[in-house]
Amino acid sequence: MNHKVNCIILKQQADGLKRPPWPGELGKRIYDAVSQQAWRTWMDHQTTLINEHRLNPLNPKDRQFIETEMEKYFFGGGSEKPKGFVAPE
Length: 89
Hints:
Helices cover 49% and strands 7% of the residues. It is mainly alpha-helical. A hairpin with a 6-residue loop joins strand 1 (4-6) and strand 2 (13-15). Helix 2 (36-53) packs across helix 3. It is globular, with a radius of gyration of 14 Å.
């Protein structure tokens, strides 16, 4: 049976994630409130952040930046695109 959540992004009930996607309290909050579809939108945004800021997810400082942006994206009013970012056509 699928895990259902009242998705904080979609504002409707949808299939939830199969497991917490991040360690700790933030991962649990995401598991409880974010749908699979909303998580995919975050993953696209995260890729943009990593590429535009030239982040290394293995670097603790960069990982902390990603975590902060993830929390803002889901629970803090949104994470902005990097300054000067132009989406590819």
